[in-house]
């Protein structure tokens, strides 16, 4: 599944933040109905090859949504499991979806 196809698999239900280089939304999988907290984050570099990151965190409750809305970009990385779809213009099509599973501590 490519990053482009991934976008086609989800419906946006609610937007929490929508800026040119940062976006947060509640999305739903069109196939199974699973809810996800979605974040798009783009870092701006001097050469115009700006890496982009999309993160999908599965939602189980309204409390999950509220907790995720309160985090910043780096705080989102503390939530598991999640799907990560980095896109780097320098990778020449080698981008992939990565799964960050819940781990025991």
Could you give a short description of this structure?
The protein is mainly beta and 105 residues long. It is 13% helix and 39% strand.
Radius of gyration: 14 Å
Beta-strand content estimate: 35-45%
Number of strands: 6
Summarize model confidence as the mean pLDDT: 81
Shape: globular
Which strand order do you get reading across the main beta sheet? 1-2-3-4-5-6
Number of helices: 2
Total number of domains: 1
- The topology string of helices and strands comes to HEEEEHEE
* Structural class label: mainly beta
**Uncertain segments:** 1-5
Approximate helicity band: 10-25%
Biggest beta sheet summary: 6 strands, antiparallel
Beginning-to-end CA distance, first to last residue: 31 Å
Task: Describe the structure in your own words.
By secondary structure, the protein is mainly β. It has a six-stranded antiparallel β-sheet with strand order 1-2-3-4-5-6. The chain has helices at 3-8, 62-69, and strands at 10-18, 22-29, 35-42, 52-58, 82-87, 98-100. The longest helix has 8 residues, at 62-69. Mean pLDDT is 81; it is low at 1-5. The chain has one domain (3-100). The chain is built from two helices and six strands; from the N terminus they run αββββαββ. The chain is globular, with a radius of gyration of 14 Å.
């Amino acid at each position: 599944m490519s990053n482009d196809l991934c976008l086609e698999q989800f419906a946006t239900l609610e937007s929490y933040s929508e800026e040119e280089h940062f976006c947060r939304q509640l999305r739903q999988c069109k196939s199974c109905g699973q809810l996800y907290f979605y974040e798009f984050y783009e870092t701006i570099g001097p050469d115009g090859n700006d890496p982009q990151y999309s993160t999908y965190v599965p939602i189980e409750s309204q409390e999950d949504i509220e907790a995720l809305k309160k985090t910043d970009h780096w705080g989102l990385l503390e939530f598991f499991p999640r799907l990560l779809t980095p896109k780097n213009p320098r990778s020449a099509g080698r981008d992939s979806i990565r799964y960050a599973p819940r781990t025991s501590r």
